[in-house]
Amino acid sequence: MIDFKEEIAKTICNITNNEKEEIKGYIEVPKDTKNGDFAFPCFSLAKTLKKAPPIIANELKDKLEYDSNVIEKVEVIGGYLNFFVNKNILIKEVLEKVSKDEKITVGEGKTVLIDYSAPNIAKPFHIGHLRTTVIGGALYNVYQKLGYKVVGINYLGDYGTQFGKLIEGYKRWGSEYDLSENPIDKLAEIYKKINDLAEEDEETLEACRENFKLLENGDEYCVKLWNEFKDLSLKEFQKIYDLLGSKFDSWDGEAAMATRTDEVIDILTKTGKLVESEGARVIDLSDKGISTPCIVCKSNGSTIYATRDLAAILYRSRTYDYDKSLYVTSYEQNLHFKQIFEVAKLLGIDEKYTKGLEHVSYGMVRLPSGKMSTRKGNFVKIKDLLNDTIEEAKKIIEAKNPDLEDKEEVAKRVGVGAVIFNNLVTSRVKDEIFDINSMLNFQGETGPYIQYTYVRTNSILQKAGNVTNINDLNVEVLSDEYSQNVIKLLGNFEDILVQVTNKEEPSILAKYLIDLAKAFSSFYNENKIIGEEKTIQDARVFLTYCVGKTLKEGAKLLGMQMPDKM
Asked: What integer is the mean pLDDT of 70-96?
């Protein structure tokens, strides 16, 4: 197989003496087919060559030597070198690559940690944890597809004074609650009840504090209750993770790091930078452009969330030889991560690990009304949200195709897919509006539209029967504009995945799938597929097969499952 980017990079390297991989990384696929099949932006060479990009482009064009059977012509447009390659070779190369599903090795030998989801034990899994779970899950899948070793970490909120309160509440009223059904809702009720009482009664608050001390010191009864609460929570969370297709390699939460905070404090103390401020112990970061100091110990000597995050960085740097360590949380924690990433540089760990720390922030999830509320509180539970969307999907499917088999399973895939896609199709830094009606629109830029297009490819393949061997295809019949637009997108799939990881932005893949679905719809509307002369039908059916395969793979990377029929 010919790697066109490789060939183009070689021709440029022979003149510029740049590293081939560096040049290859700059090569783009133009959106407009009039600008060729591949383009090299000469802006990347302007600094070193100290010339304007258009001048560099023209000079390179005059010196380029290439195989005219592979690269047919080169044009200069602005500061770009545009390469037009042999269409028949390109078509066959793209279709062969897609159909063979070759292993991608971009990230081979590299490790990425992704810290995401992180719900709070003994509390309902609410909508605030939806985007971290979905964005983190998509990044996990894409990095893995590119050949990276990926470690998904669910840094559970399983530590803090709230557990002292919950233990006290359970001591008082636990016998009144049956935790065999809806245990998390009931634990949340107990917590609210004891929290309200603790706000009014100092003795109750002191009892809660004492429980937490007992828990920290390993009291048998308190530890037993804490483990029960954790086990009940994880069982409930797993139901949601199963629906969303989420997977994790580590479930070490705050509690696992709490035992490691003494070492963090000791190291920071020895640097001389841990100073007292209003009774607390802090690190002054004003010289780093951060006006708010990082609190490491409270005035009563206890550690806080930041201390445990620092302990986690220290632990992970010793446990995993990572190249990147991503933290997928909302933009509300921007300051927190700026602080701990700077303080982490004082822990004496290899610079490689502190450089690899990255906060992947995202916007909030909002309802069309702007409010987050249910009849029971000021949050929306993910379980309710997913069930409501699945039910609405089922109504739409029953209206469209009342005789469809496995309607329940199809509705689940469409409903959950709609939620996932809606969370990923917009840039992660933007707030996301959760509107069931718009996300279930089969004609918009939605999950159901992607799924519907895939089902259409499936239907065509069933009617056509066997897909012809690629070596027997006459690819010349795929030279029309609509076929070319589809092929161009198919050939860009790997680059799209690399872009996702370069920017930690799953919306790049989601938007690509929309573009591919639209391009296929145009191809479908403009070209008769079944019933054409055999060589034409075979080629168009094979192209349809490659589209369906790519849509399914791309959706899977986002965490979506495709129905076979709708």
From this structure: 93
